[in-house]
Every structure is written in structure tokens, then in C-alpha cells.
């Protein structure tokens, strides 16, 4: 068809899922930032997959590589300095990293869409929200400006923005924080993506609004059957909406499993620390135990297990089992019980003890 | 918006009056005898001196003199020069020339400055970017006086591409002086654009635009440039006012009979009425274009609302 | 005459923005510590900037030339002239040839450095005096004083630097006022300061406003420090960095302005030795002896460039926002 013009109505990269496997598979992804002061290893070989209708939460502190990996999937890393140094990103069985620029572009939007943390800065201040939502239809389907605006109104209705038809020509700064985030969601959902990446979608919002936005996301996911990758450091949000969780530390996944498993019986001391650092109703009267120490410097990740300088269980030298010295040996991500993986030499002790 | 403009217009009046009074005071009120100064080395008969004194109300206190001047101004009487030529006529004679020169200069400033800045900003730290940085530093550092002579010597005298001076060859004669006049602003526009584009390239909403799967061209044109150009366009707008009042050296070197040349001649000949009239006009332009820019700003950036 | 624009383009927008976002927003009482780290960071940054080294080299070169012109004049006396040598082109013995009067041109150009740098320095001092005083008063006291001074600044700002100075210098000799009427370096410096202080004022004013609401200033006031003490000990030190950047660039701009005014016939007069005069005299001989315009022009440009490069480098180093 009119592929030369850049507007295509059915995208070859977006054939209905041919294999019944996961919609998105990340395999051994590495991302580095090559700066003047050296190489920063932001993502160091992470793998995960997301099925249709599934919600995967990626949990971690800032600087753990969770947002960078999401940006790598979207193809929106700032490069330079960011470079994808290895691995693969399979979307419906095809490696995005091996596609050409145009094919990648056609996946952004209809295939994988993303919503960002701060909707105020993520929306262009000089265009109306209707225009920015409508752009999706115009760029990917060649819809006319007028029709695109009509679609935008429908979408704004769908994300429950009151008086959508009246507000379609308003600018982002005229909306409240929660409404702006709904605009972002409407924009991301415009073309019914198979995967939605939500990068801290509620962090910038008031607590009451947070719940509304998460409810909305959940409802929309149920309606569309899209896979949802939820990037957050908010354990409460994870607990509420996620099916599975992957905990990241220093650019690695250090633990995965169902939310119930990971939250009730963490298999990695870092996850234990995370759980202890939030107030829990049952543990009333107990003290919060923050994780001591600083997040690692990604330009100089500690040897062995990157968490060892902060780990209360770390063992080295004579105290360590052979080849399981926390200071010298990097623990691989391995199956610890059914359906669970953890990257800790001593997960079993944690689980059993 | 209308109210804002009206209020701003009102606020410009004191500045306009203040500036013209400042010039008026410098020309007429500093110690010394302005009539003697007017005459310079020429001998002056007492009769002529008395007539001049009367004409410029020099017998009155300064404020009264100035009030009379303002009174005349209300019916567009800016006084006359020593040859009884109305100042207004001098202005209407010379202004079109300066306007043409400014137009040419703004054209160069906008086109060359913008294009250089955009390409430098898109590929920051690239080869072209460094070229732009070095050449703008060079251009900004060379005084306009030197630049005028240099270009006159090279392009006028040696290469013969452009007329050396005067405006006898129509628009063509304005090209070289226009480029010289524009040079400093041009370099600044290039730098401003470069910084602005480079900053915007990293903006969150540009990342969003890419995440939306917009074609590269659309991301750059619609989401990067549109936003980056707001400060540049406003600078260029304000610069029109500055250029209209800033062509003294260029007009002197290239012998262009505009208002810059006229005010320079008037200062040399101490033609007080001409100096005050033209400088007031220049200040008016300066203020007027700054006001235009403020309004333009609100049009370009929906976040800005003046009410 | 873009000296006005030169000044405008170089400073207000950019420096004022820098002030608002970068240097001018300290958050706690760390005036001293913060300043220290600012300067040591800046030095680390400066050392890696080629602009800084080129600018410093040129700057030192011309300052030496101004102080010890005989080191650079290759033994020639600028005032020892012989008409037989009139307009001789450059040669290996006389690198810049001779001017119309048959004076060694290299010596003349070299001796012009002192004039230019003196006026540049004097006028920047004048600009700073006016700017700092008016700006500090306006920013610190606020209210009516501020609005009046701000209007006054607007008035001066609307007048192009060269035009204002041109008029003042033209009427100067007939005023009989000291310094202003003697058509010397002092008169030029006064004229340039009188019409060039506005950006410095705005800079200082915005700094003062930004800092005076900080907690540590309130604390100093609560402990009974006098207004003057607060201004000089707490507020002005914070304005040093942007004012330094501004002043460095402005020295260059003012040197160019002096040459322009002299060229226009209202600045220095013979027998002063000045690049502006040399350019003006050479103008009519552009066809036959282009070197007479060329050499002073090049040296003038290099001098201006030295200060502008230094100022640019300082700005890059002192503005944390621009660091990558």
C-alpha cells in the first residue's frame, strides 16, 4: 500500500499473534550508557515475558534499571549515550531490535504503548490534548484531522474525562494531574495496543487519584486483553493489580514469582528489605526497617552479588559455601521453588528458615 | 488580552517620555551654551543666536521647554532643523531606507541563524555544531565596525561582488550592509536556537512523541522545532526594534542615508530638534516591538495568559 | 552598530536565565561552602575548555602589551615618523608597515592596547558601580524604590549604548564639566558607563531578590544584622559569579564600543593613540593602503575576542545547569 508515505493501515509487524506464546519476551537485555566518565551499566541481562491479559510488575529503587529497560523496549532510549549492548526483544515472536526503523515505528502505538510518570511534562504544552491524542490516528492510520478529533473525544470519554467534547481543545496545563494522566492513558490506548507499559503511572498523583487511575487501568486491561507492564516502586500498587512481579536491583532481575509468593515469602534479602520498609497493618507496633546503605553506583557495580554491601545475610571467605561467596561469586537467577526464581546464593535458607 | 495590551501601552508612555526627556536634557540642558555649541566653530551673529534661542525656547526653564516640545508633539510638530526643514519630513524621508535595511538584516538573521541553529542543535557536539559554535564566537567577537570594513574591502573592493557604498543599486545594495548589520544577532539567533533545540530534543514530550510511533520528521518538526522556536521568534521580534535604532555604524560605513545616518549627522551638527525627534522614534520602535513580542509570546505558548 | 546588540545578545537573556535557574538559588546557609565548591568545580571545568585557554592566552598577551608596549614594538617609537616612509606596506623589518605620516604602524597598534584596555577597564568599573548600587537598592528595598528604579532602567535600556554615548560625548566639551569636557579616556568611560549599566543592574537586582528570601538571610536578620551587613556579607557574594561572567564579556563589548565612538569622531582625539582613530584614518586609504585599516581591526577584534571567550568559558563553568 502506501508504505512509502509512512502511513499504513495494516502493519506487517502486527499480524495477529501467530504463535500462542507470550506477547512480549525480553531476552538477556543489556543497556549501557557510554559517557565521558566511563560506561554505566544500567541494564545487565534481564529476561522476562508478558502474556496476553497479564500484568507484570517490575519493582525496584530508582536507578535499578526498570525505566531504562522499558525505554529500550519502546525504542526511545536517548542514544547517545544509551546503547543496547545485547539481547533481544521479541514482540509476537519477532525481534524488534532486528527490525528496521520504520517497522519499529509501526509497533510503537498499535503494538506497544507507554504512559509516563509525569503527564505534565510528557504532554506537549503547546498542543491541545485532542490534537495529541488524535495524532495517533493520523500517524498510524492516515485519519483526517477532523475524524481524529472525533476519535479523541471518544477516547477521552472512555477514560472517563468529564465533558470530553468540551475539553478536547484544552491544553494540558488546563487539566488536573489525574485528568492529565487520563489523557496520557487515552493516548496510549488509542490504537488498542497489545502491550501497555506504565512507567510509574501514579507516582506524581494524590493518593485518592492514584486509586482511580489504577482502577481505570485495570478496567481497560480487562476490556482489551492487553498485557500490562507496570513499573513502580510502590508495593501497594503491585499488591493490588499485578499477577507476577519481577524485582530489579542494579540492572538485574533478582527475584520473580507471583505477587502472593514474593510478598509473603521473599527469596532474596533485598526483597525482604523492601517488604520490611513499608508499614504493614498486621505488624502494628513493630519498627520499620529501612535497607541500610546506598543504591549501587552503576558505573562500578560491586563484585559478586551486587547487593552484598547492604545485605544482612552476606557471607564471604570461610563463612561462605564453595562457589557461593557473596563478595566474589555473582549469583545467577535460578529456580528456587515451583514458578519462582531468585538470584541469591542462600535463597533456600531464607525460604525455609 | 486586550486589557493587557492596553495596560502595557499605558506603561510604555512614561518610558517613552523619560527617554525623550533624557535626550532632550542632554542636548539642551547640560551646562554650557547650546547655541554656541550648535554653531561650533562658525561665527554666529547675535541676531541669529537670538532667533535660535527663541525658536528653541532656550530662555525657559528646562521643564517648560520640554513641556512646550511635548505640546507641539501632540500635533506632530517635531520642530525643524537649522535649515527650517521639518524633522518629521527628514524622518519620513530617511525611515524607508532604514526599514529596508532592517528587513534585509532580519531576513538574514532569521534564515541563516535559524537553519544553522536547528542543525547544530539536532546533532549537538557533531561536526556542524562545533563549526557553528566557533563561527558564532568569531562573529560575536568582531566589532561591527571591523566587520563592516572587512566585508567592504573583501566583497566590495577586492571581489567587486557588491557595491562599496550607497544605495544606487536598489535592493541589491542593501545585501552586504544588511548582512553586516545582522551579523551579531544572527550569531545569537544561531546559538539560541541551538541551545533551545538541544534542550527540547531531550524534553519528555519529545520522548512521548517518539513513543507514539510518530514518523521522525513529525517528531522533529511538530514536537521539537515548534516548541524550540518560541524563544527564538520572540528574540527576532524584539530585535527588529533594536535594529531599527541600531544602524549608525553600518549606515556610516556604507554611506546609507537612513535614520541612523541622519541622527549621526544631527549629533555632529548638534541639530537638537532632529536628534531628539529621531531618538524618540527609535525608542518608540524599541518599546513597540517588545510589546509585540509579549503578545506574540502568548499566541505561541498557550500556557501564557495575560489576564 | 551592534555593540548595543552585542551587549544585548550576549547577556541579558542568557545570563538572567542562568541567574534564575542556576547560580542564584542556594537553599541553605552554605554561602561559604557552596561558593567554595562552586569555584573549585568551575576550575575543574575551565581547565578542560579550550575557549578558556585561548581567551586567557590572548588576554594575558594584550594586558602585557598594554603595560609594557615597548616589549612588543620591536624597538620602534610610535611617534618617530618620517614622511618619506608614508604608507609603506608591511615588510620584514616593519611588520605592519607605515601609516600616512610615516610612523611605524606596529608600534602605533601596540601602543593602542593601553588606551583600549584602560577605557575598557574604567568603563566596566563604572558600569559595575552603577549597576551594583542601583540593582542592590532596587532588589533589597523593593516597593516604590524598586518600581522607580526599574522604570529608570527601562528608559536607559531603550536607548542604544552607542547612540546615548555619542550624544553625551558630543555635547561634553561644551559643558565645561571636569573629565567629561576634555575628550579623553575618562570622558569615554563616563559616557559608556552612563548608558551601559542596565544589564548589570538587572543582574544584581534579580540575584538580590532571589537570595533575600532565603532562610539564612532571614536568620541573619533575626539575629540583628544590619541591612548593610546583610547586603554585603550574605547577598552580594552570591551575585559574584554571574556578575563576573557579565563583566568579562562586557570589557570586550566596551572596548569595541570605544573604538566605534572614536571612529565616529566623538571619542578620543589626536594625538591619542587609539585603534578607533587608526581605523578612521585608514578608512579613506582603504584602496591604496588597506593594511592601515586591517591591522588595528585584527588586533581590536582579537582583544574583544579574548574577553568574550573568557566570559563564555566562565559562564559554561559557573552554570551548573549547563554541565552534562
Characterization of the model:
The complex is a heterotrimer of chains A (353), B (307) and C (324). Chain A is α/β, with parallel strands linked by helices and 353 residues long. Chain A folds into 2 domains: 24-248, P-loop containing nucleotide triphosphate hydrolases (Rossmann fold, 3-Layer(aba) Sandwich), CATH 3.40.50; 266-276 and 303-353, no CATH class. Chain A has 12 helices and 12 strands. The longest helix of chain A has 18 residues, at 207-224. Chain B is mostly helical and 307 residues long. The model of chain B has no long low-confidence stretch (mean pLDDT 83). Chain B has a domain at 95-300: MetI-like (MetI-like fold), CATH 1.10.3720. By secondary structure, chain C is an all-alpha fold. Helices cover 72% and strands 0% of the residues of chain C. Classes of the chains: A alpha/beta (353), B mainly alpha (307), C mainly alpha (324). Chains B and C meet through α1, α2, α6, α7 and α8 of B and α1, α7, α8, α12 and α13 of C.
CATH class of the largest domain in chain A: Alpha Beta
Tell how many strands the DSSP assignment of chain B holds: 0
Highest-level CATH class of the domain at 95-300 in chain B: Mainly Alpha
Order of strands side by side in the largest beta sheet of chain A? 6-7-8-3-9-10-12-11
Discrete helix count of chain B: 13
Roughly how much helix do the residues of chain A carry, as a percent range? 25-40%
User: Pairing-aware structural class of the strands and helices of chain A?
Assistant: alpha/beta
CATH fold annotation of the largest domain in chain A: Rossmann fold
Looking at how many chains there are and whether they match, the oligomeric state comes to: heterotrimer
Greatest interface by residues involved: B-C, 62 and 55 residues
Give the CA-CA distance, first to last residue of chain B.
Answer: 6 Å
pLDDT averaged residue by residue of chain B: 83
Strand share of the residues of chain B? under 5%
Amino acid at each position: 500500500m502506501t508504505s512509502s508515505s509512512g502511513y499504513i493501515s495494516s502493519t506487517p509487524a502486527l499480524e495477529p499473534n501467530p504463535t500462542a506464546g507470550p506477547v512480549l519476551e525480553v531476552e538477556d537485555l543489556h543497556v549501557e550508557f557510554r559517557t565521558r566518565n566511563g560506561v554505566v551499566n544500567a541494564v545487565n541481562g534481564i529476561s522476562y515475558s508478558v502474556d496476553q491479559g497479564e500484568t507484570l510488575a517490575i519493582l525496584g529503587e530508582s536507578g535499578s534499571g526498570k525505566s531504562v529497560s522499558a525505554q529500550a523496549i519502546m525504542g526511545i532510549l536517548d542514544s547517545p549515550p544509551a546503547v543496547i549492548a545485547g539481547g533481544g526483544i521479541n514482540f509476537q515472536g519477532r525481534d524488534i531490535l532486528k527490525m528496521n526503523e520504520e517497522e519499529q515505528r509501526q509497533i510503537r502505538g498499535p503494538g506497544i504503548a507507554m504512559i509516563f510518570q509525569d503527564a505534565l511534562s510528557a504532554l506537549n504544552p503547546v498542543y491541545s490534548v485532542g490534537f495529541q491524542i488524535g495524532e495517533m490516528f493520523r500517524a498510524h492510520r492516515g485519519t483526517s484531522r477532523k475524524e481524529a478529533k472525533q476519535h479523541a473525544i471518544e477516547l477521552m470519554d472512555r477514560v472517563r474525562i468529564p465533558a470530553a467534547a468540551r475539553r478536547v481543545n484544552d491544553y494540558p496545563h488546563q487539566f488536573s494531574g489525574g485528568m492529565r494522566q487520563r489523557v496520557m492513558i487515552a493516548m496510549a490506548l488509542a490504537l488498542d495496543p497489545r502491550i501497555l507499559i506504565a512507567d510509574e503511572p501514579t507516582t506524581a498523583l494524590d493518593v485518592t487519584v492514584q486509586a482511580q487511575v489504577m482502577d481505570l487501568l485495570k478496567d481497560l486491561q480487562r476490556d482489551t486483553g492487553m498485557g500490562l507492564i507496570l513499573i513502580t516502586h510502590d508495593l501497594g500498587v503491585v499488591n493490588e493489580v499485578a499477577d507476577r512481579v519481577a524485582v530489579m536491583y542494579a540492572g538485574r532481575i533478582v527475584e520473580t514469582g507471583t505477587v502472593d509468593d514474593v510478598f509473603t515469602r521473599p527469596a532474596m534479602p533485598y526483597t525482604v528489605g523492601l517488604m520490611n520498609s513499608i508499614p504493614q497493618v498486621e505488624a502494628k507496633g513493630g519498627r520499620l526497617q529501612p535497607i541500610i546503605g546506598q543504591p549501587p553506583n552503576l558505573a562500578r557495580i560491586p563484585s559478586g552479588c551486587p547487593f552484598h554491601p547492604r545485605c544482612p545475610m552476606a557471607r564471604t571467605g570461610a563463612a561462605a559455601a564453595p562457589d557461593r561467596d557473596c563478595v566474589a561469586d555473582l549469583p545467577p537467577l535460578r529456580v528456587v521453588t515451583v514458578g519462582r526464581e531468585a538470584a541469591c546464593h542462600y535463597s533456600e535458607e531464607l525460604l525455609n528458615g | 488580552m486586550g486589557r493587557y495590551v492596553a495596560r502595557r501601552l499605558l506603561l510604555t508612555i512614561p518610558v517613552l517620555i523619560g527617554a525623550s526627556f533624557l535626550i532632550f536634557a542632554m542636548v539642551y540642558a547640560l551646562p554650557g551654551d547650546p547655541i554656541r555649541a550648535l554653531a561650533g566653530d562658525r561665527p554666529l551673529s547675535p541676531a541669529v543666536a537670538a532667533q535660535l534661542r527663541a525658536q528653541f525656547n532656550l530662555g525657559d526653564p528646562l521643564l517648560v521647554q520640554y513641556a512646550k516640545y511635548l505640546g507641539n508633539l501632540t500635533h506632530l510638530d517635531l520642530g525643524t532643523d537649522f535649515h527650517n526643514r521639518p524633522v518629521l519630513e527628514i524622518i519620513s524621508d530617511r525611515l524607508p531606507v532604514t526599514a529596508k535595511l532592517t528587513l534585509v538584516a532580519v531576513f538574514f538573521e532569521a534564515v541563516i541563524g535559524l537553519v544553522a541553529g536547528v542543525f547544530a542543535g539536532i546533532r549537538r557536539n557533531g561536526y556542524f555544531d562545533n563549526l557553528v559554535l566557533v563561527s558564532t564566537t568569531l562573529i560575536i567577537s568582531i566589532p561591527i565596525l571591523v566587520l563592516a570594513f572587512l566585508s567592504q574591502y573583501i566583497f566590495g573592493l577586492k571581489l567587486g561582488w557588491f557595491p562599496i557604498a550607497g544605495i544606487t543599486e536598489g535592493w541589491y545594495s542593501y545585501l552586504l550592509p544588511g548582512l553586516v548589520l545582522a551579523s551579531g544577532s544572527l550569531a545569537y539567533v544561531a546559538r539560541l536556537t541551538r541551545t533551545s533545540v538541544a534542550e527540547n530534543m531531550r524534553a519528555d514530550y519529545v520522548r512521548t512523541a517518539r513513543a507514539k510511533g510518530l514518523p521522525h520528521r513529525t517528531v522533529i518538526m511538530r514536537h521539537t522545532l515548534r516548541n524550540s522556536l518560541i524563544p527564538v521568534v520572540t528574540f527576532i521580534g524584539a530585535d527588529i526594534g533594536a535594529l531599527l535604532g541600531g544602524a549608525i555604524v553600518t549606515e556610516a560605513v556604507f554611506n546609507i542615508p537612513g535614520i541612523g545616518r541622519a541622527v549621526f549627522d544631527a549629533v555632529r551638527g548638534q541639530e537638537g530638534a532632529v536628534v531628539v525627534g529621531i531618538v524618540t522614534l527609535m525608542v518608540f520602535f524599541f518599546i513597540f516591538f517588545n510589546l509585540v513580542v509579549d503578545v506574540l509570546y502568548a499566541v505561541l505558548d498557550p500556557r501564557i495568559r495575560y489576564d | 552598530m551592534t555593540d548595543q546588540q552585542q551587549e544585548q545578545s550576549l547577556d541579558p537573556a542568557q545570563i538572567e536565565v542562568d541567574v534564575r535557574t542556576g547560580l542564584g538559588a542556594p537553599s541553605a546557609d552554605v554561602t561559604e561552602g557552596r561558593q567554595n565548591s562552586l569555584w573549585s568545580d568551575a576550575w575543574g571545568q575551565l581547565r578542560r575548555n579550550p575557549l578558556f585557554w585561548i581567551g586567557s592566552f590572548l588576554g594575558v598577551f594584550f594586558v602585557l602589551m598594554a603595560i609594557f608596549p615597548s616589549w612588543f614594538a620591536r624597538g620602534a617609537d610610535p611617534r618617530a615618523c618620517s614622511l618619506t616612509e608614508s604608507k609603506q606596506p608591511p615588510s620584514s623589518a616593519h611588520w605592519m608597515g607605515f601609516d600616512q605620516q610615516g610612523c611605524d604602524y606596529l608600534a602605533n597598534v601596540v601602543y593602542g592596547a593601553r588606551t583600549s584596555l584602560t577605557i575598557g577597564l574604567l568603563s566596566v568599573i563604572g558600569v559595575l558601580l552603577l549597576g551594583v548600587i542601583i540593582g542592590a537598592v532596587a532588589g533589597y528595598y523593593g516597593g516604590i524604590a524598586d518600581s522607580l528604579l526599574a522604570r529608570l532602567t527601562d528608559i536607559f535600556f531603550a536607548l542604544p549604548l552607542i547612540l546615548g554615548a555619542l550624544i553625551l560625548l558630543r555635547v561634553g566639551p561644551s559643558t565645561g564639566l571636569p573629565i567629561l569636557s576634555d575628550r579623553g579616556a575618562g570622558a569615554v568611560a563616563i559616557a559608556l558607563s552612563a548608558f551601559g549599566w542596565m544589564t548589570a543592574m538587572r543582574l544584581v537586582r534579580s540575584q538580590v531578590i532571589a537570595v533575600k528570601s532565603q532562610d539564612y538571610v532571614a536568620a541573619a536578620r533575626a539575629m540583628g544584622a544590619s541591612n548593610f551587613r546583610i547586603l554585603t556579607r550574605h547577598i552580594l557574594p552570591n551575585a559574584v559569579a554571574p556578575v563576573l561572567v557579565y563583566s568579562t564579556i562586557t570589557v570586550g563589548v566596551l572596548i569595541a564600543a570605544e573604538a566605534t565612538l572614536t571612529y565616529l569622531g566623538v571619542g578620543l582625539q589626536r594625538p591619542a593613540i587609539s585603534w578607533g582613530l587608526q581605523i578612521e584614518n585608514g578608512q579613506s586609504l582603504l584602496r591604496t593602503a588597506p593594511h592601515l585599516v586591517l591591522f588595528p581591526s585584527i588586533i581590536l577584534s582579537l582583544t574583544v575576542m579574548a574577553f568574550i571567550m573568557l566570559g563564555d568559558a566562565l559562564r559554561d563553568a559557573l552554570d551548573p545547569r549547563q554541565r552534562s
